[in-house]
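Retro notes, item 3 of 5
We never archived the inputs for the magnesium ion complex last cycle. Fixing that now. Sequence and ligand:
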Amino acid sequence: MPASALTRSMPTGRRLRRLAVPPLSIAAGLALWQAAISVFHPNKLAVVGPWEIARDARRLFANGTLGADIRLSLVQLLCGLAIAVVAGTAAGVLLGASRWVAGAVGPWVTVLYTIPVIAVAPLVIVALGFGDAAKITIVVAAAFFPIAISTQAGAAAVTEGGLRDVTRAFRANSLETLWYLTLPGTAPHILTGVRLAIGRALIALVAADLFGSTSGLGYLIISGQQNLETSDVYVGVVTLSVIGLVLTGLVGYAERRITAARTARAGA
Amino acid sequence: MGSATTPARAATVHDAPDPGRPVIEIAAARTHYATPAGPLPVLDGVDLAVRPGEVVAVVGPSGCGKTTLLRVLQGLAPLDSGEVAVHGAAPGGAAETGYVFQQPSLFPWWNVRRNIEFGLKLRARGRRTSAAERRAQADRLLEIVGLTGFHDFRPAALSGGMQQRVNLARALAIDPAVLLLDEPFSAVDTLTRERLQRVLSRTLHALGTAAVIVTHDIREAVFLGDRVAVMSERPGRIVATFTVDHPRPRTEDFQHGEQLAAIAARVYRHLKDGDERAHAEQAAPAADAPHPEKRRAR
Ligand SMILES: Nc1ncnc2c1ncn2[C@@H]1O[C@H](COP(=O)(O)OP(=O)(O)O)[C@@H](O)[C@H]1O
Ligand SMILES: [Mg+2]
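Structure as it came back at the time:
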């Protein structure tokens, strides 16, 4: 029996209980953390508890800085991701569709993929300045490769699969083949690449803020470190984690929906 | 291309609308595949002509070049020498041929209706259809193949037999002059296969579509074909043609009757002996004694 059928036939009570596990786990972890702080009283410069982080977050939110930091970072992140999705999909489709391109460009992709973004971030900032352009470029550089590599695998499978014969037999031209076969056939792989790219993009964004910025979640973290406001550091880190969790969750959901619709044995 | 010759052995065909110009002609066709071990000749002088509305079944041993022959007719594979023409022009041109693959090969991300509409949506050949026209055509074909009501289903939710009906409907949706079918029912169980054979016979009759159907199932070939062409071992050529003198669309009675069994037995004997000198052989229209021991061989 396929897993989806199992999920469907699961009684509502059990399903609710399963859905309740992740939030309960997080709540329990926070409670333990707070309890440990009250018992051991660690150095406040290194560790602060969830209660204090929440209080600091409320303060930063009330004076408007947290909202502005989130907005700026989200705009830079989403712009960078959008560009990386378009460029990474295009590159992946080209790499997957042609053995020749894969042979010529593939090694470059591998080499560039292994360069740490932190190493090149200062160079990008020197070239493009301290503004959004540099930040977005650094996000694109981080997010591009996972998307391109995952898309390449998907496009190669589609190009060599039996459905390529169908588009050939129906005499689809290359644009039609791209639109009706390659892109829909590769969509799950593109989404997998995006899911993997989100984490890298968030790290890159903080790294970009490290080398000169006056706002953004990375700036919040870095200025917190410099001013010994440890709870600011935690607020920035937690906010980034929540953004990462939400985005990854959304993309993962789309991924599962697509796959389920293509493989579900029952009903329309 | 129009100079392709009609093989002399073509006999009169029951029920063919116009015994005039063939919709498909292939003559002295030779081709090969390049392999690491050198060129592998696959077709070696294939001659075949299909008239409008006629159904020709091609049987031959596995690996003899049946799929290659269909790919040549579809314009997907080149010839080394010889002639091939669809409606007097090179295949792949203006004249439409529909292709039904051995595996259902439906697009898993589309529902049944959108799969059937696929050929109509392609603009590559300058044919533009409105969404309403496409929908009407898809629904008409769903009815013909007996799948009314399943238009919203995704392929994964259909049985193998139903998927193969959609596959058939998709190929027919573009109103092809000729339908090319590559062992279309070999992946489904026996009962479903026999039902699909009847669906196909009815459908081709209703639409008046000519067809070349490749199979290794002799009974299927006799059931579906106005003629049955026998291919030799690779490199394949057509070594005999049998006329099946029974009106279409054909029914269960014919499917399990003595006439089909008798013709199938003759085809089988021919295939088995591999007698390359044999040419057109007019199958006896009726009551030859069935050959039970040979019927097993299909
Ligand atoms: N792409 C290919 N490259 C090399 N050999 C091939 C290729 N396709 C088919 N062949 C060989 O050509 C012969 C005929 O193949 P095919 O037309 O598929 O036969 P059939 O459909 O009658 O089983 C077989 O021996 C097969 O192994
Ligand atoms: Mg074959």
